[in-house]
Amino acid sequence: MPSRNVSLRLQDLQEKDSGPYLCSVNLQDSQGTVRGHSSKTLELNVLVPPAPPSCRLRGVPHVGTNVTLRCQSPRSKPAAQYQWVRSPPSSQVFFAPVLGEGPSGDTESAAGVEER
Predict the structure, then answer these.
(1) Contact 46, 77 (CB under 8 A)
(2) I want to staple 73 with a disulfide (CB 3.0 to 4.6 A). Which of 8, 14, 27, 53 is the partner?
(3) What would the DSSP string read from start to end of the chain?
(4) Closest by alpha carbon to 84, among 74, 73, 70?
């Protein structure tokens, strides 16, 4: 007896489509009485890419002062990881700590740079 593949096609996925989906298979006799049942749950986790970041400078960039470079991007899933890179000739890579989620769902990070 051939098996039947019944697929569910989800189009134009949105983050709100994430969650558990249950496939249920039932065997009924000619009178409609259930004679067998089986089910399986599949978890759908829709990924959300980050949008281009918004960056700004806090502080006055004078010799001997401290400044903070801030960067934020609208919510992503999973949470975005931030990295600051200082371009050549003196290349440096900074892994900024995530400061948390803002009121609009944005994730923000900052890297403090001490001028010497």
Answers:
(1) yes
(2) 53
(3) -----------S--GGG-EEEEEEEEEE-TTS-EEEEEEEEEEE---BPPPPPEEEEES---TT-EEEEEEEES--BSPP---EEEPTTS-EEE-PPEEEE-TTS-EEEEEEEE--
(4) 70
80 CB burial (10 A radius; 0-12, 13-18, 19+): buried
Distances, alpha carbon 58 to alpha carbons 46, 62, 111, in Å: 35, 12, 10
pLDDT at 19: 97
Cβ-in-10-Å burial (0-12, 13-18, 19+) of 50 comes to middle
Question: What phi and psi, each to the nearest 5 degrees, are found at residue 98?
Answer: -80, 125
Q: pLDDT value at position 87?
A: 79
pLDDT value at position 98? 55
pLDDT under 50: residue ranges of the chain: 1, 114-116
